[in-house]
Request: fold
Amino acid sequence: MYSLEVRNLTKTFEKVVAVDNAAFEVPDGSIFGLIGRNGAGKTTTIRMMMGIYLPDSGEVVLKGVKVGQEFKNRVGYLPEERGLYKKMKVMDTLLYFAELKGKNGRPIQMKAEEYLKRFDLYDRRLSKIEDLSKGNQQKIQFIGTILHEPDFIILDEPFSGLDPVNTNLLKDIILEMKSKGKVIIFSTHLMDFAERMCDHIAMIDHGKIILKGSLNEIKKKHSQRNVSLSYDGDISFLHGHPLVEKMADYGNTTGIRLKEANQTQLLLKMLVERNVIVKKFDANDISLQEIFIEYAGKEEGGSNV
Amino acid sequence: MFNYRILGIIKRELREKLLSKSFILTTVLFPVFLFVIVGIQAVLQMDEGASKLTIIAEQKALTDSLQAQLLRSDLMKEGKFTFDFFTMNRNELRKYLDENKKAMLDDKLTGVVFVPDTVFNNKIIQYFSKSPNNFTLSRKIEGPINKVLINAYFSSKALSGEELDFARKGVDFSGFKVSKEESIKEEGFGSLILSYVFAFLLYISLLMTGQLMLQSVIEEKASRIVEVILSSVSPNEMMTGKIIGSAITAIIQMSIWLGAIISVASSAVFALPPEIVVSIKPVQVIFLMVNFAVGLVLFLSLFGMVGSIFDNPQDAQSGMWPVMMLIMIPFFVAMAMMQNPNSPIGNITALLPFTSIMVMPVKMTIVEVPIWQLVLSIVVNIIAIFFVFPIAGKIYRVGILRTGKKPKWSEVVKWLKYKY
Reply:
């Protein structure tokens, strides 16, 4: 069962089509990644899902019903450009966010205290936001996103601008929410994050969804004929070799695409024969990055809409 | 219309504004300022007393009648004046002045009034003092002296008592306010002062509240918090909440200010001189508040709209001028109205949206305004809200999520056509 469906969303600014007939489905209990480079239309899509922008056409449907305020209340949203009221106190800020979602009273306050303790911010609960470090402000922002116990968590480029500690913290939150059966949707241009965390993805480029589905299936479908290789030695003989369709260097690993799927054993044999020390030979493996480049082409300049 | 989200925003606005230093300062400082000014005036008036005057005439008869007249006059009742009376010629006067020079410089003697014989030719009397231009004093003693002179001058001529009475009288220009309900009533400067106070308070409050609204919208936009808020509430709810929150703040402030004025005006502690006694009628206060509340919503929509267009206060100031004109024009119309209460511009602007917020309350204090006009001005304002609010809301909705370079007005107009 798909819990959330995005149906043919289109949004045009002036004459620029930011999102073009985008459609994808978010399954229950999944971590869903909306991936694409900067300016591909991720933020616009998410804003339409949140009802912040009205789409020119299309709709967002939750279990068969078009989403509205009821849905907003069930979502915890962390925009790419995050902000807090600088002069407001930490506790007041959290309670205000929850109040706007329709949650107030003693239970929510206790919940806020609980989170603050967990994030080592309990003694700062009466401080003004502006007196907190940037990292701590980010923590407050996370708490504000999940305090009202949303069923959906929508994060727009959640890892941009986070320090390593907070990156891990946010990852933990996401996994914890998943274990509680919540749906997590996040957009990112960082393929390795998406690859590590998502079970479903939709790939967006120039406003169009160019690929979508379960990450495993997508990878399976694309990984045939693909070998990811770590090695020591010289593999330059493979350039232009009749078995090899193309090669790409990703730093630690080299991706090799063969012309036929059943030639991986042959490739391994050749490497061993040529005294290349094979550290890792992962047949039928492909990184999301490779798939992305295959679909969307090499990175080119794009501006954020 | 008022769901918990709007209430939440209103509550936050109130907490932020009512507890802000600037609000507390301006709200409390104004009454303090008012009390101090009125208080100082009261103290000064008390202090003014204890004037010691020497009245000198060249003729004994004149001295006697001056003495009789002055001692009988209202001045003596006030108990602040003491007089000495002498009959001297010019040489004796000069000697007397030399002797008493020190007393005058030390304020022991306020002044010397010399009534020479030539007074019956040119009606000029001489006043010697450290501060000869004390108008309050000269105004007070002028009357009795004039009376004596007239009596003395006409006593040799054959005139009836009535003719003398008429001659004695100066021209007294007393103002009467014509109103429907009550009988014609004598009017001091009170209503003029009240109209000035009303115009001034409305002007200040409107500017301050508008500026705060503008700043707050820009801050939300610049700090990017707006998108977090918009994930819970709609832009219209957000704007509505902010407008109502700001309006309530302004109304509380205005109530405190008016309360201070009413208590000063009606209090016996500050015995105001009768000419400037301010009489405030409940209908004036009620209308002012209602009209103010409605007008505020209209103006705050505009301030919110302007704030949403710009990223920073500097740009916003340049985009503010059309709204500022809408505040300044009625202020100047209101000021002009005090000179000429029945000017056509005043009558028209008292009924127009944006201007009526200031002009109508001011007009009310100076002339009698029929009820239907009061109601009409409020109705016109409410209708204007129905036109302005959706436009402002639309621009707010687009502008609040826009960042980057300062948009042109032509672009802003295009936003109206966007489907957001």
Notes: Chain B touches chain A at residues 4-5, 8-9, 11-12, 15-16, 219-220, 223-234, 401, 419-420 (CB under 8 Å). Residues 4-39+182-415 of chain B form one domain. The first strand of chain B starts at residue 51 and ends at 57.
